[in-house]
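New to this. Comment on this protein:
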Amino acid sequence: MMIAPIDTPVLSVRGLSIALDTRDGHAVPITQDVSFDIARGEVLALVGESGSGKSVTALALMQLLGANLKVARGEIALHTQDGFRADVAKLGARGKGIEAIRGARMGMIFQEPMSSFSPIHTIGQQIAEVVTVHEDVGRKAARARAAELLGKVGIPDPVGALDRYPSEFSGGMRQRAMIARALICGPSLLIADEPTTALDVTIQGQILELLRSLQRDLGMAILFITHDLGIVAQMADRVAVMYSGRIIESAPVRDIFRRPAHPYTRALLDAVPRLGDIDRGRRIRPIAGSVPNIFDVPPGCRFHPRCPVAVLPRCAELQPPRYASGRHEVECVHGEKVLA
């Protein structure tokens, strides 16, 4: 599914399909025909339940897929502020081509900061290394930049923090350090994969405000991956809803919340608790069933076994059509009527 194009995209993904190579020689699709654009200074939220394919899409953008995963087809066009252009999908997982992108032009905040830092090297070593790898900068200058950025992300005594190990940081501090490492070379695109999942609510709010502030200051694009629609309302300019490896709806964030067009998007919103629910007697409505196993994806619309408005047998047999109204697109048999 293609999201409506926007001017001067930093990242333009077209028809991205990722497959898993099994032991018996088969290629099992993980994602299919994923397409989206992200403009400079824009935040695109990629949302959906666990198992929808959000994180594997993010890893593909950085060529960090595991040994058994591969980009089967598609284009990942990166256009950075310094004039650099490349189709990341054509680059291997190793080599100068991808090394010129990771950390320098595209940064990533991973889900779990503790497992993303080496426990035997100091925070300062791991952040400064990004600079020395990508730029002709000495160790002393790299440490100075690392300390400056640690201070900018809110870590007290940033110079002293350089010589501390990840185990000496709290969860919120490690997350801030990871943000510093991702931003140290001023990337044009930041991928934030569930960056606040392991944090308490207070720290989560601080991290989100920090990201928004840095994004405004640096003018970078952000791909923000989450299953939390409350965070989406705070962070995103546009939203792409992913289900079972496909983007099934995309729109500006206001349209997603005011007039969701896909039954799955409406179900996600109905499952969000709101202030005053108890007083109004409103109950949270969970989505029946679960995301299908990649080895047993239903034919037709992948959501139809869980959909309360499925049109049978059509939805169970045919791939749903795509409809668009301005920048709002949906992949559903009811899409034309809802968007109208």
Summary: Confidence is low (pLDDT under 50) at residues 1-6.
